[in-house]
Design brief:
The N and C termini lie far apart (about 55 Å). It is built from 13 helices and eleven strands. The chain folds into two domains: about 20-155 and about 240-285, Bacterial extracellular solute-binding protein, family 7 (D-Maltodextrin-Binding Protein, domain 2, 3-Layer(aba) Sandwich), CATH 3.40.190; about 160-240 and about 300-360, D-Maltodextrin-Binding Protein, domain 2. Helices cover about 50% and strands about 15% of the residues. The protein is globular and about 60 Å long.
């Protein structure tokens, strides 16, 4: 399968201070397993970040203390490439990542993070767990010597923060916007001047006028980051994202060294973390949204012509990407078929229920 390397060069960037130069092969003396984990998530994204702590706690408990995962760099948030390259090189056993933050052209990363106008969190989980999603994406990762595990979802994100509401698609022209992943690709296609920025740099850039707008996640994470202090208008829905997914990425060599029991423990713990993280966002986002509005945030819905333009741009981008990467196209086709089947059912079930609840007395 065509693909580019995860990292250009061998540098480990921000991990240099928290990792030794030697290999991080799991220690199996007397049946004990010692793994090391690094995350590329900022501490401000606390619901998702705690997924790493939850995984470590769960595998330790389920293994009776035999399987220990040490979390490195608790206050560091290195980029996606350094932590994944460290796993590939064997100097790290497992990475905890949000690949959506990287505008990667790699097919597995694009599918795993969640696609523009793709599956929402519930449909993504069904496709991954009961459909072909996990098998197909793992096939892509296997080509890189890696194995992916779910680590949670945010649910549908918001559209971002603006100094004034958008009223038409042309309002995006030459607007300096911080965005990442597929949202960045869509916004660039619509004429925005997309500028990358680390989470902690967004508020200062907005306040200094170096950015006009910023897309991040949703109410809880955006409140934690203080984005409402730098922009007052909050857009919904997102520019096409149904959810943003997090992943644990493990090296094949480290995984092969585990016993079948410990591999089963790791898989079970990862799915428990996935459910826990998504539940956290579902429970805490409403309270955060109320707090933002109470602090003066003004919600506005993106105009129809802009959401339609976003849909058209995303479909064109996906078609172009699928043409360049046949493996991506095959997975995208399977995901779309699964989505069509689920949409047929949800139209009668959830949609009917939701409509009744909206019109209750």
């Amino acid at each position: 399968m065509e693909r580019r390397a995860f990292v250009q060069g061998a540098g480990l960037g921000g991990l240099a201070g928290v990792m030794s130069a030697g290999a991080a092969a799991a220690a199996h003396a007397k049946g004990l397993v010692q793994w090391r984990l690094a995350s590329n998530l900022p501490r401000s994204q606390d619901i998702a970040w705690r997924g790493a702590e939850s995984l470590a706690r769960r595998v330790h408990t389920m293994s009776g203390g035999r399987f220990h995962i040490e979390i490195l760099g608790r206050d560091a948030s290195p980029g996606f490439a350094p932590v994944v390259d460290a796993v590939r090189a064997g100097t790290l056993d497992i990475a905890h990542v949000s690949s959506a933050w990287e505008a990667s052209d790699d097919d597995a990363l694009a599918i795993g993070a969640g696609l523009s106008f793709g599956l929402d969190a519930r449909r993504w989980q069904a496709w991954m767990l009961a459909g072909a999603g996990l098998t197909l994406t793992r096939g892509c990762y296997a080509d890189c010597g890696l194995v992916n595990y779910p680590a949670g979802s945010t649910g549908a994100p918001m559209g971002g923060w603006f100094q004034r509401p958008l009223t038409a698609a042309q309002d995006l022209q030459d607007l300096r916007v911080r965005a990442s992943g597929w949202a960045a690709k869509v916004l660039h296609r619509l004429g925005a001047l997309v500028q990358p920025a680390a989470a902690e740099a967004i508020v200062p850039a907005l306040q200094a006028g170096r950015l006009d707008a910023a897309e991040f996640v949703g109410p809880h994470d955006d409140l934690q980051l203080g984005l409402h202090r730098a922009a007052s208008h909050y857009a919904y829905p997102s520019f096409g994202a149904g959810t943003c997914n997090f992943e644990f990425i493990v090296g094949q060599r480290a995984l092969a060294a585990l016993s079948p029991e410990d591999r089963a423990i790791l898989e079970a713990a990862a799915w428990q973390v996935h459910a826990e993280v998504l539940a956290g966002y579902d429970l805490l986002n409403p309270a955060a949204l109320r707090q933002l509005v109470a602090a003066g945030t003004r919600l506005f819905r993106l105009p129809h012509d802009l959401t339609q333009a976003s849909l058209d741009a995303s479909q064109a981008l996906l078609a172009e990407h699928a043409a360049r990467h046949p493996g991506f196209g095959r997975i995208l086709d399977d995901q779309r078929k699964a989505a069509a089947e689920m949409d047929l059912w949800f139209r009668f079930a959830e949609a009917g229920h939701d409509d009744t609840m909206r019109h209750r007395a």
